[in-house]
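Standup notes
- DV: blocked on the single-chain target, sequence here:
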Amino acid sequence: MRYFDAHCHIQFDGYDEDREVLIARMKDEEVGGLVVGVDIESSKKAVALAQHHEHLFASVGLHPNSVGIERFDTQEFERLAEDGKVVAIGECGLDYFRPENPEAAKQKQREVFQAHIELAGKTKKPLMIHARPSKGSQDAYEDALAMIESARNEYPDLHGDFHFFVGDVATARRATDLDFTLSYTAVLTFTEDYDEVVRSISLTHLLSETDSPYVAPKDRRGQRNDPLASKDVVAAIARIRGENDEVVREALMANAKRVFRI
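- DV (later): unblocked, structure below
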């Protein structure tokens, strides 16, 4: 592998017609991928894909926006996490963006995130964190980081990635001080909103991701995204930081291997 998409959802229905063709292209172009589950069904599909393709890996978890729909089945997720191709726990975390979310829903999210933290701690696998703060705030990051800091007392090796990071410089530093990585998508190809943070982070704590099928790069806006766009993300990070593309590619690939132990 030369590139690694640290967060994609190619098990989703939108890939049913050409999934195997896409996966073959990824292999040909030396792009590996972490297929991320958002509930039990999609987590099982992620594991199945990873089992059948050497360059794919899986993450299993319950998305915070689904905690009111689906119960977090501890035993089932523990069983899935035992698979050797499962290299992360999540997508999990806190989503405070939607104003209709009452405090009770946020509390439920925190309870389920705590269950993911405990599973990650027990299995020694990294967390794949979704944190989306309310508008004009860093609240979801603040709560998630506080929970991680507290959990470090019991699980000193707890680590992971904040996927699709949208936090500010101070929040980024707090996360990387805990040795968590921050991953960015092809949003970097069409906005400068995150450039300051991307420049401020040590290259050792950055990852590339696509969040496919979402957030296609600038030249494919409005279309379905795919893990091949991880190349666009690497190029954007190199441009923003003013660094050599190959140096950045090698560093991000090394980071993925370290974090996910692949």
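- Follow-up: The chain has a mean pLDDT of 97.
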